[in-house]
Specification:
This protein has 208 residues and is of the alpha+beta class. It has 2 domains: 100 residues, Endonuclease I-creI, CATH 3.10.28; 87 residues, no CATH class. The protein is built from 5 helices and 8 strands. The radius of gyration is 21 Å and the shape is elongated. Zinc ion binds next to strand 8.
Length: 208
Amino acid sequence: MTVEVAPEVRAAQRRIVSTINASGRLNADGLALWREVNCGEWKATAADISRDLDLLQVPHTIVTAFRFPLATAYSKAMREGEEVRILRKDLAHLVPWMPSMEQTVADIPEDAPHWDFTVFQPRADGMVIAKLALSAEWPAWSKKQARAARLVCAECDYDLREFKDEARMPFDVRLPERPKARRLVCGQCCNDGVDEMERLAALAGKPS
Ligand SMILES: [Zn+2]
């Protein structure tokens, strides 16, 4: 069967294939393409990528996602970006345009990391689970980059991306003088957040 493909669709296919080859990040949840906010005219923005994917009828979403600050940057704040994400189950829609994708998806390792980076947040009334808005490439960052993103324990420098040692899960235990600044600490260094929960409960005037 020969399918007529409109020139604008062909053009979208060419752009998408080269964008994915250059900056696609694949893990257990699917494919992600990150763009820094205000990345400049020389690079396709998340909106450009989204338009092309619409033309190719590939379902996707755009989420806000942060990357570690660059070592050379004056600001130590995380870099804000937008990430175009295609769920693993929807990658089949990409295969007709990019046949190599089929094997790439089949080759995703069983223990590949997921998109979410979950942390525990002690509150006065209990423990809450929160997800950090990180770019899908966080598992691939070097330890130095993870440190810049404050994904290591603020007390002992343990790399909190491991999620293997149950005694060292990430807890968001903030300094009393900086209640708005996220501060991750491993479970071992904060008694699994229990002390912080009691401190907050006492502050709120509730019996702990
Ligand atoms: Zn620690």
